[in-house]
Inverse folding.
């Protein structure tokens, strides 16, 4: 998603994030820079890649520099989603020196985090790229950074699931236990829809074949999530479902296990690790002398 493709709503979310992050980091002022650098100084800095992976966060970086200095000149050399190697230069930026230093840590923190997620997502996508399955993210994201982390997932080649609790019904184990049964939970959702003139896609989680059979008897859902199923049991479950519903695998999916799971015939594999286990990549922003 390039700068020209960012919707106005998404742009406003990014700008709000930038404002809040700068307020957290800069507070009443960057007193070190104010004490050591003349107010009118301008410098050029480059974003140097020091890791291998998928680059993410360039468009956000551009907006950060524009926020701290509207006169900033941004010379972009690489795009979000590009494969990057040690020594690559993602961009050069020329702006007010004090503004450059106010933006530095926010740019690096954001890009390193997003690039780590994009890189791990790319590794998962690569493992199953020749199979008819989609790898999904989850809600296991950093509070208030979900929209950026899900963007990074897409840049890595995987797919977003739900954005929050409001855009899909997902009946999980705690809902089932609190409702009393799978049947009661599903019927409760349908009653809620009728009373509120509402409709959303429905996923229901099952923990074993007994629960699966109950779902198949009740119906009224769109997708069945097989949670922590061993591969032979998962294959049996897929056969029982027999394409009546979408099938999703979840629970402890790793790079080592995802291909075997995909080969059971599931349609989707949700992987919390895409966001909660990604390691930030090494990038640096240095003034060019």
């Amino acid at each position: 998603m390039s700068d020209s493709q960012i919707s106005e709503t998404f742009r406003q979310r990014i700008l709000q994030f930038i404002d809040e992050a700068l307020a957290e980091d800069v507070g009443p002022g960057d007193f070190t820079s104010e004490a050591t650098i003349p107010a009118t100084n301008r410098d050029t800095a480059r974003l140097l890649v020091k890791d291998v992976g998928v680059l993410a966060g360039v468009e956000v970086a551009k907006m950060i520099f524009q926020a701290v200095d509207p006169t900033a000149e941004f010379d972009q050399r690489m795009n979000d989603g590009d494969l990057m190697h040690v020594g690559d230069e993602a961009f050069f930026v020329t702006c007010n020196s004090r503004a450059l230093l106010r933006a530095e840590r926010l740019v690096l923190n954001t890009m390193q985090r997003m690039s780590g997620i994009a890189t791990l997502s790319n590794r998962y996508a690569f493992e199953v790229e020749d199979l008819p399955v989609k790898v999904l993210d989850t809600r296991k994201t950093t509070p208030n950074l979900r929209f950026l982390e899900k963007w990074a997932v897409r840049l890595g080649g995987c797919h977003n699931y739900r954005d929050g609790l409001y855009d899909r019904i997902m009946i999980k184990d705690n809902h089932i236990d609190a409702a009393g049964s799978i049947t009661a939970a599903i019927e409760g959702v349908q009653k809620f829809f009728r009373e509120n003139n509402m409709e959303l896609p429905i996923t229901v989680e099952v923990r074993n074949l007994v629960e699966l059979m109950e779902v198949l008897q009740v119906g009224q859902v769109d997708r069945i999530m097989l949670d922590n199923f061993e591969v032979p049991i998962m294959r049996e479950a897929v056969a029982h479902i027999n394409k009546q519903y979408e099938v999703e695998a979840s629970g402890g999916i790793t790079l080592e296990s995802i291909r075997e799971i995909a080969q059971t015939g599931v349609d989707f594999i949700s992987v919390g690790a895409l966001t909660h286990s990604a390691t930030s990549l090494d990038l640096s922003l240095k003034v060019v002398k």
Remarks:
- The chain has a mean pLDDT of 97.
- The radius of gyration is 23 Å.
- The chain has two domains: 3-121+279-287, 159-270.
